[in-house]
Amino acid sequence: MVARISCFVMSGGVGSRLWPLSREDNPKQFHDLAGNGSMLVRTVARLRARPAGDTPVHLIASERHAERVRSDMANIDLAGGRAIFEPSGRNTAAAVAVAALETIAAHGDGLVLVVPSDHEISTDEQFWETVEKGVPAAEAGRLVIFGIPPGQPETGYGYIEATGDGDVRDVARFVEKPDLETAKAYVAAGTFFWNAGIFLFRAEAMRAAFRKHQPDIWDKAERAFAAAASEVSGTYLPLGLYSAIPSVSIDYAIMEHAGGIAMVPASFRWSDLGSWQSLLDVSPTDANANVVIGDVVAIDCEHSYLRSQGRLLSAIGLKDIAIVATADATFVAPVGKSQEVKRIVEQLEKSGRLETKFTPAHDRVLLPGAWRQRVAHWLFEETLPLWSTAGVDERHGGFYEALSFEAAPLMRPKRMRTMARQVYAFSVAKLRGWNGDADRLIEHGIAFMERGRTKRGGWARVLHVDGTIADPCEDAYDHACVLLALAHAHQAGNPDALRLSQETFAFLDAHLEDERLTGFLETSDGTELRRTNPHMHLLEAFLAWHTATGERGYLRRAARIIDLFRSHFFDSESWTLGEYFDDSWKPAAGEQGQWTEPGHHFEWASLLVEFAGKSRQTDLIAFARKLYASAHANGLNRSTGLAYGAVSRSALPLDLTSRSWPQAEAVKAALALEGTGGPDLKPEIEARVGRLFRWHIDPAPLGMWIDRIDEKGRAVATEVPASIFYHLVTALMQYLDKTQGAVIVYQLPAVPESTRTRELSAASNKATA
C-alpha cells in the first residue's frame, strides 16, 4: 500500500533578496517568475501531482497574506488539506512543529513532507521519484533531507556533507554558507550537496526530536496549536501564544543536533530563486544570454538580467549586470553581487522607507479615487444630514454624545471634547462646500461649550445634559480639542472663535504648561501620569491655528512638541510611540509603559508630515514613515486588515478590538505620505478607504458607523459615538481633496427632496420630541 504523505508548504517568507519585485505585501512566492504561474501555485500543483497515494496539501502562510492565499487557492483541490495562518513569522522550526502537530491531530502519526513555496524544480515526476526514495527511511523513524548535487561553487547556499552512496546516505554534518574557496573545495570533494530545505519525516519522530533537543519550542507550539481558531477560510494561530515561540530555523533547532539523519540525492534540477543571478540562470535567454522581461531595449548587452515593470528600460553595452525596475524603484548591480540586495533593503528599512513593504501595482485598485463617489455620497447625503439634525440637542444645547442605531439620542453627560469635535466637523464641512446649516450649528455648539467655562477661564471636562458643569477638571486633551475646533470655526467665519482661542491659549500657558517647560500636564492639578495623546492633539491644534492665521508663533509652539517627540516619545529601536510616561518622561512602569496604539501612530505620521511641510524639518518624513510602517507591520489584524486598539512595543496584542477611528487615521497617514518621495501609496489609500467602508460604514444604518469590530470581524458596537464623527469627516474630506487635487464642492439636490432626507427629518423630529 502506498503511504499517505501529508504535505506542508511553507509560505511565510518575504523574499527580500528579490527586491524591488518581492516585498512584504507581495513576496516572491506570489510572483510568476518563470512565466507559468506563481511560485506558490506551482508548488501546490507539484505536490498534487503525486502519481499514487493519499496526499493532502496544507499551507503554512502569513496571516497578512491570507486574502492572497485564499484567492490563489480558490480553484485548487487541496485533497483534505487546509491553510494554517501564522500571525507573525517565527522561522522554520515553528512551522515544522505545526506541521507535525497538524498531522498528529489528523492521523495520530504519519509521514510529513515540508517544502518551501518558492523553489524552482525541473519536473514533477523527478521530484516525486526523489521523495519516494526517502519514504522507507522516514517510515523507519529517520529524519530525511534532500541534497542537490552542486553544479558550481555557490556561497549563497547551505551544504550537507554525506557519506556512503546509493539512494539514501548518512549525513555527516551541515555547513553554513561558505566562502568561495571553501565552496570550490566542497564541489571538488564530491561528498557535499546543497541543502534544498525539503524535509520528510514521521510526525512522531519529529515530535521526539523536538522534545529531546528543543522542548521549549515544542511546548509553546503545542499550546498555540491547541488554541488555534478554525474557520472555513483556514486555521488561525493565536498571536500571543505563537509569538512566544523562539524564532529559529529547523536546521539550527533540530537538524544540527539530531542523530541518524538520512539524505537522498535529488534527481531533479533545483534553484531556490533566491537572487537575480539564479533567475538569470534558469530563465529563457536571448541570443546574447540576456533575460529580457517587460519594456526593455538592450543593445550590445551580454549575460544580463533586464526587467522592467512599466516604464521603458534601455541599456547599451552591459555585461553581467542585473537591472530590475518597478514603478517606484530601480535596482542595479553586477549579477554576481545581486545576492547583496538585502543590504539595500536593510538600509531602506533603517531610513523608514516604505518601498520594502508596499507594491505599486495597477491591478490592486481600479483607479486612484475609485471611492470618491461613495465617499462624497456618504458624507454629504447621509452622515452630515443625519448628525446635523438627529445629532443636535435643540432643547438643551450642544450635541448628543451618542445615537442609537435607530437614530435616537442617548441622554448622558456631554464631554467638552465631543462638543468641540462636532463644531470642528461642521466647520470643515462648511469649508468644503457643504450647503447645510453650518453657521448655525457652529454657533449653537460654541454657545453650549461656553457654559462650561471655569472660573479661571479654562474649559470643564464634562457638562450635564442641560449645560451645567458635571466635572470641572481642566484637562489638556479637552483644551486641545477646543483650540482645534475654534481654529476651524474661525476659518469658517465665526465671529467669537478668535477671542475664545486667545483666552484659551492664555489659560493653557498659565495653568497647563509644565513649569519646567517640558510639555503640558494632563490636568491643571498635574497629578496624573503624563501622556503623549494630549500633546499630539495640541500639536494638531497649533498647526491648525498656523493654517488659520499664518502666524509663526503657533509653529514655535508646535516645534516644542516635536522636540518632545524626538527626545522622548519615539523609540528608535522598535519604531513605536509610547503612550504613558512618568513625570520625567520615562516610560511608565508595567504594562502602561509598553502600551502603543496603531491609531496614534497613524495620527502622528500625518501631523509630522504637515509640520515638516511648514517648518522644512524634512527629516521628520522618515519618522512618519517609520511610524506608519510599524503600525502596518505589527498593529493590524491580519484577518480583517483593521488596526488593533493597542499592541505592546514588542508587537504583542493588548487590545484586539478594532475601532473605526484608527482606520480613518490610517487613511489620513497614507494620504499625507503619498508624494513625499516614498512609494506610490495610491493603491494603499484606496485599500484603506475600502476597509473603512467594508467593516465600519457599509454594515451600519445610513449616516452611521459600526465603531467596534472584534478580532474575528464581528460587530460589537451597541451605539454610535459622536466623538468619532470628526475622525471620519476629516479623513474622508482629505481623501476627496487629495484624489482630485482640489477641494470638492458637493451640492445636495434641491428638489425633489430625497426619500432619505425625509427619513432623516422624521428621525430628527422623533428624537427632539
UniProtKB/TrEMBL annotation:
Ranges for domain Nucleotidyl transferase: 9-287
GO biological process, one term: GDP-mannose biosynthetic process
Top-level taxon: Bacteria
Entry EC no(s): 2.7.7.13
Domain MannoseP isomerase/GMP-like beta-helix, chain residue ranges per copy: 294-348
Catalytic activity: alpha-D-mannose 1-phosphate + GTP + H(+) = GDP-alpha-D-mannose + diphosphate
Pfam families: GlcNAc_2-epim, ManC_GMP_beta-helix, NTP_transferase
Protein keywords: GTP-binding, Isomerase, Nucleotide-binding, Nucleotidyltransferase, Transferase
Record-linked InterPro entries: 6-hairpin_glycosidase_sf, 6hp_glycosidase-like_sf, AGE/CE, AGE_dom, GMPP_N, ManC/GMP-like_b-helix, Mannose-6P_isomerase_type2, NTP_transferase_dom
Protein name: mannose-1-phosphate guanylyltransferase
Organism: Sinorhizobium glycinis
Lineage per the UniProt record: Bacteria, Pseudomonadati, Pseudomonadota, Alphaproteobacteria, Hyphomicrobiales
